């Protein structure tokens, strides 16, 4: 009788072993990683610059983000006081770095800047114009809108009284409910902010001549 009892028991142990192997086997990582994108091609400058005119020297930074955006997960606002963190969709680099890099590329393209410095820059490479940005909001919402709110300042580093303070609020529709579409719309509002900053720099540059 013992062999008859042992067979089912062994079968049960084998089944548990196989289930355990399945449970603890390596699973594919469902994470997807996204980046913001700069303007696809150099845009015409806000004010035409003579060919012999020297390029503008720019510095972008510091850029500050609110704590709820300073994370790898991509954020969606689902209510005025509530956000959702994506389980699988993440930024491929710190958002502050991505934001700064894209704004820098956009403004350099718009103004055709020949000299560009990322914050913090060496003392001996101080730019003529510096832009500081405080981001207040930068996310999509359940109404399928990408929203950007930011306070920013542009200053001529050589003239204490030559400065522009602004607050920008922009929104763009998101084409569909995919994360890729949301990131594309966020890149668009960032392009809009870049154009406003470029215009302010052009104004200061014109008055400084």
How would you explain this protein's 3D organization?
The structure is a single chain. With 209 residues, the protein is α/β, with parallel strands linked by helices. Helix content is 33%, strand content 33%. The protein contains 3 helices and 8 strands; from the N terminus they run H-E-E-E-E-H-E-E-E-E-H. The chain has helices at 2-24, 95-111, 179-207, and strands spanning 32-34, 57-64, 73-79, 82-91, 115-118, 129-141, 145-156, 163-173. A hairpin with a 6-residue loop joins strand 7 (145-156) and strand 8 (163-173). Helix 2 crosses helix 3 (179-207). The termini are far apart.
Main sheet: strands, sense, barrel: 8 strands, mixed
> How do the SSEs run, as a string of H and E?
HEEEEHEEEEH
Helices and strands: which structural class?
alpha/beta
Task: Work out the helicity level.
Answer: 25-40%
The number of E-state strands comes to: 8
Terminal Cα span = 105 Å
Mean pLDDT: 84
Overall geometric form: elongated
Radius of gyration: 26 Å
Percent of sequence in beta strands: 25-35%
Unreliable residue stretches:
49-53
